Amino acid sequence: MKKMITLVALTLLVTSLAFAGSVTGYVTDLKCAKADKAGAAHAGCAKGCIGGGEPAVVVTEDGKIYEVAEQDKVTGHAGAKVTVMGTIDGMKITKVESVKAEG
Predict the structure, then answer these.
(1) pLDDT at 103 over 80
(2) Half-sphere exposure (CA, 13 Å, Cβ side) for 76?
(3) Phi/psi of residue 79, each to 5°?
(4) Which structural domain, as residue segments, surrounds residue 97?
């Protein structure tokens, strides 16, 4: 019985770490994001790198990099500023509910 209660408690803890929310930033490729290259001025390069197979990420104004599990939902926004609504687990967007272009 104690094992069952412990298992349920751990499951609840882990699932509570992921939460619904939003992230606003620029869709760029992971390689350039790590080199601090993102934003409107970097749009052409982001489109080319993502089109060439680099994984897309969302980089916030303060430089935080969010990995995106559902790549197909953000790749069409390469180089653009967007707000991604979905499930966020740490620095990863695990479920994308919507992607809205900003300005």
Answers:
(1) no
(2) 8
(3) 85, -10
(4) 19-101
- Over residues 45-64, the pLDDT tens digits come to 899 999 999 999 999 999 99
Q: Is residue 76 in some structural domain?
A: yes
List the alpha helices (DSSP H) in 1-103. Answer: 2-17, 30-34, 43-51
Domain count, the chain: 1
Domain assignment of residue 31, yes or no:
yes
In a domain, 14, yes or no: no
Task: Compute CA distances 11 → 4, 15, 17, 20, 94, whole Å.
Answer: 11, 6, 10, 17, 17
Is residue 86 assigned to a domain?
yes
Q: For residue 67, give both structure tokens.
A: 């990995």
